[in-house]
Design goal:
This protein has two domains: 223 residues, Alpha-D-Glucose-1,6-Bisphosphate, Chain A, domain 4, CATH 3.30.530.20; 94 residues, Rieske Iron-sulfur Protein, CATH 2.102.10. Helix content is 21%, strand content 31%. Strands 1, 11, 12, 13, 14, 15, 16 and 17 form an eight-stranded antiparallel β-sheet that branches. Strands 2-10-9 form a three-stranded antiparallel β-sheet, with no helix packed on it. Strand 9 and strand 10 form a beta hairpin. The longest helix has 31 residues. The protein is globular, with a radius of gyration of 21 Å. 39% of the residues are buried.
C-alpha cells in the first residue's frame, strides 16, 4: 500500500477552490495508472466467488402489476412478487409456446401468460421451474448456476452498506457494447477520473493502490472469514484509495477520501471514508446480456447509490427523495456516457488484438 503523502484528515465538508488548475495543467497520471496494476486487480476480482448471482434490476422498478425481465448471458429471466408478496422468478420463456413472460401481467401475485393464459404462482408448473432470487432492498438478483458455473451461494456477495432507512438511494441503468471485464476494469482505474470527467471531479490523487502482497492478503482474509476485497479484516491492501473533490457549483467542492474495492467478479464498490457523505456507497454491477444483432457482446451496468450524511438537513433530502433520484440518475448517466465509451473502446481494442500490453 502506498503511503498517504497528503496527510489530510478531518476534511472540511465543503470548500472553495482558490486557484483551480486548468484541465491541461493537471499532473499526468499515466505512469501511475500502470496497465499491470489494473490488470492484476481485475484478475483478483475475477477469481473471487460470486455464487452465480446476477443483478436483474432495481427493487424500486418492480411493480405489483407486472414483472421485471432481463436477458442474462442469453437466458431470459423474469421476476415478480408472488401471492405472499415475496420475490419469485424463473425462466422468462413460457414453457407452452415460448411467449415472453416479461410482457405478461401479474394478477394477485400470479404471472399470467398473455398468449394463452398459463398462470404461474412461483412454484413448478407445466414444465416451468423457479430460480433462486434475492431482493436486498435496493437491487434484485437471480442465481443462474448453469451460466456462472461456480459453487452456488445462498445469496449474492454484498459489500457493507449504510443502513437503508437512513440513506438516500438511487439506481442508474445503462447498456454498453463490451464485456463485463471492460466495465470492471474501467472502475478499477481511478486515475482517469479528473481527466475523463472534469465536470465532476477535481484535484484527484490516488494515495493508495494494491501492492505485491495484495493477492496473499486477500487469500488470508477469505481464510479468516473476512471480505476478500478488503485484505485482512480492517485492511485495504487490495483497494484503491483516492483523495478527490466532487464539484458542486462554481468553485464550491466537497473534498473526500474514497476507497474502491471489488468484492466479486462483476461488482466494484466505492465507499467514502472521509469528508462529506462519509459512509456513502456507490456500487457498480456489470451483468452480461448476450450478443447483439451483429454478434457483439452487450453488458448492462447497474449502479446503486446509497448516500448518507450527518448534516441535519439530510433528513429533509431523504423526504425529497422522489425529486432527487432523477437528478442522481442523470449525474450517473453523464459519467457513464463517458465510461461506457471507455469500456466499449477497450473491448474493441481487445477483440482486434490491438489493446496495449
Amino acid at each position: 500500500m502506498n503511503p498517504d503523502p497528503s496527510g489530510r484528515r478531518g476534511r472540511l465538508p465543503l470548500s472553495l477552490r482558490r486557484r483551480p488548475v486548468p484541465w491541461e495543467g493537471q499532473r499526468p497520471t499515466w505512469r501511475e495508472a500502470g496497465p499491470a496494476v489494473i490488470a492484476e486487480a481485475l484478475k483478483r476480482a475475477q477469481a473471487r466467488p460470486s455464487g452465480n448471482w446476477y443483478v436483474v434490476g432495481a427493487s424500486r422498478d418492480l411493480r405489483e402489476d407486472r414483472p421485471l425481465g432481463r436477458t442474462v448471458a442469453g437466458r431470459e429471466v423474469v421476476v415478480w412478487r408472488g401471492p405472499d408478496g415475496r420475490l419469485t422468478g424463473g425462466p422468462g420463456v413460457c414453457p407452452h409456446l415460448g411467449a415472453p413472460l416479461r410482457d405478461s401481467p401479474v394478477r394477485c401475485g400470479t404471472l399470467v401468460c398473455r398468449w394463452h393464459g398459463l398462470a404461474l404462482d412461483g412454484t413448478p408448473y407445466a414444465g416451468w421451474a423457479p430460480l433462486p432470487v434475492h431482493d436486498d432492498g435496493v437491487l434484485l438478483w437471480v442465481r443462474l448456476d448453469e451460466v456462472g458455473g461456480e459453487a452456488p451461494l445462498d445469496g449474492p456477495v454484498l459489500a457493507r452498506r449504510p443502513e437503508r432507512a437512513g440513506a438516500l438511494t438511487a439506481v442508474y441503468a445503462g447498456t454498453g457494447v463490451c464485456e463485463v471485464e471492460d466495465v470492471v476494469a474501467n472502475r478499477l482505474d481511478p486515475w482517469h477520473g479528473a481527466w475523463l470527467h472534469p465536470y465532476a471531479f477535481a484535484d484527484l490523487t490516488v494515495v493508495g493502490s494494491p501492492g505485491a502482497g495484495a493477492a496473499a492478503a486477500a487469500a488470508a482474509a477469505a481464510a479468516a472469514g473476512g471480505d476478500p476485497s478488503q485484505g485482512p479484516v480492517g485492511c485495504t491492501d487490495d483497494a484503491f484509495t483516492v483523495d478527490v473533490s466532487f464539484k458542486l457549483t462554481g468553485r464550491l467542492v466537497a473534498p473526500v477520501r474514497a476507497v474502491f474495492t471489488a468484492p466479486e467478479p462483476r461488482t466494484v464498490v466505492m465507499r467514502i471514508t472521509e469528508g462529506e457523505g462519509a459512509g456513502s456507497v456507490v456500487e457498480t454491477h456489470a451483468t452480461p446480456l448476450g450478443p447483439d444483432a451483429l454478434g457483439r457482446p452487450r453488458t448492462a451496468v447497474t449502479e446503486a447509490v446509497l448516500a448518507v450524511s450527518g448534516r441535519p438537513g439530510f433528513a429533509v433530502a431523504r423526504r425529497a427523495a422522489p425529486l432527487l433520484r432523477p437528478l442522481v440518475r442523470a449525474a450517473a448517466g453523464r459519467l457513464w456516457r463517458d465510461d461506457l465509451a471507455y469500456a466499449e473502446r477497450r473491448w474493441r481494442l481487445r477483440s482486434t488484438g490491438h489493446f496495449p500490453g
